Every structure is written in C-alpha cells, then in structure tokens.
Amino acid sequence: MIMRPGVRKFALSAHLTFSIGWIGTVLAYLALGVAAVSSNDVQKIRAAWTAMELTGWFVIVPLAVASLLTGLVMAFGTKWGLFRHYWVLISFVLTVLANTVLLLHMPTVSSTADIAQEAEGAALEALGGDLGHPGIGLVVLLVIQVLNLYKPPGMTRYGWRKQQEQRASSRP
What is the pTM of this model? Predict the structure, then answer.
C-alpha cells in the first residue's frame, strides 16, 4: 500500500530526522571517546565515560531503533518496497546489523563507565576510550546514507518479477 503524499512526507521527515540524528550523536560519542583516550585528567576520563554511557543509552539507541522502524515504514509505504531494490535491501541489512551491534555493545559501555567511576590512576588511564565501535559504526551509517541518497539501479529477482506482473496486469 502506497502512502498518500502528505503522510509520506511526514514519514520521510521523521526518518531523516532520526537517521541524521543517529549520525550526529555517533560523532559526539566518538568525540567523547577521543577525549577519554587523549586525556590524563582523571575527572575528564570519568566524565567522558559517563557521558558515553548516557549518550549511548538515551540518545543513540532510541535514534537507531527509530531510524530502523521509520525506514521500514518508508520501505513498505512507498514504491521502493523492502525487497524490490538492492539498495533498499542492503540499507536495511546494514541498519539491522548496526542496531544489533549497538545493542550488544552498550552493556560493555555501561560496565566500563562503572569501572571508570571506581578506578584510579593508571587503571583509569588504561581504560582509554571507545573508538572502534563508533568509528566503524559511523562508516556504516555513511554508507547507508549514500545508498539512500544515490539509489543505485538494480532490482532484485523479486522486484523484477513484481514489475513484470504489474506490466502484464496493466495491458489490455
């Protein structure tokens, strides 16, 4: 079922807001990780880990889940579909993968933030920052963004079959 234009614009606006917000908060999270790695100040390291935990659970996770859900609404409510075009399917798979890694990684962030509150001196400095996950995650999110912007051609077998069925049914 294709959405009416007003509903489609609202859904697209929501999806773009959540998706771009996700990218922005990953950048902020990455900046906090860099601050934790590059600092020798105990309070700054503790604050960075506390902020990473809060940003992760209360901003990044909700934006990631909302981006996934609104992406599904867009896929099922527009002509693109979820399984008709490779770029949509690849974007969906990458978004599910990013959400899964995020949800599996956040308990580790919480544990490390708890350790940061108790650790002292060299043990605290040894915690470093969380750079790998958000760095790779940012690259994945940018790949998804580029796919959704450029919409490279290429239909799946399912999409091609559906297109042929529609053409056949529209002939007299």
Answer: 0.92
